[in-house]
Amino acid sequence: MALLELVAWIVGAYGVFVAGAGALAVWRKLERPRAVDQFAWMLTFLAFVLALLSLGRLGPHPSSTHIGYLGASVVVMPFAIVTVRQDRSPWSSGVIAVCALATAVVAWRVIVTA
């Protein structure tokens, strides 16, 4: 297994973990835990590493779909974090959970379209 695929699996698994942590906070109707914020930023960092590794594998004619997935992998989580920065309600954990799940799916799609 190449390094790019390994990092994509790590991003995918970690994205599912973050989504689960956010969903648990919504289910228990808790104020968004600080740990969920930290998990989300770590997922952002991992997605950035995946994007950098994937840029190294781009051929002479990359598909626009692949480029779009690379952009989405880097933008989705920071946008979600900044959007709910002031809101600590349980639903803000839901926003983080949905975006983390989307990041996990995008990580898998980066490998499929590479």
Features:
114 residues, mainly alpha, 4 helices
Q: Give Rg in angstroms.
A: 14 Å
Q: Which consecutive residue ranges, at least 5 long each, have pLDDT under 50?
A: none
Average pLDDT reading: 92
How many helical stretches?
Answer: 4
Structure class: mainly alpha
Helix percent reads over 70%
Strand content: under 5%
User: Largest sheet, described in full?
Assistant: none
Number of domains: 1
Globular, elongated, flat, extended or rod-shaped: what is the shape?
A: elongated
Order of helix and strand elements from N to C terminus: HHHH
Report on the architecture of this protein.
With 114 residues, this protein is mostly helical. It contains four helices and no strands. α2 packs antiparallel against α3 (64-83). The protein is elongated. It starts with a helix and ends with a helix. The model has no long low-confidence stretch (mean pLDDT 92). The chain crosses the membrane at residues 6-27, 39-60, 66-84, 91-111. This is Integral membrane protein.
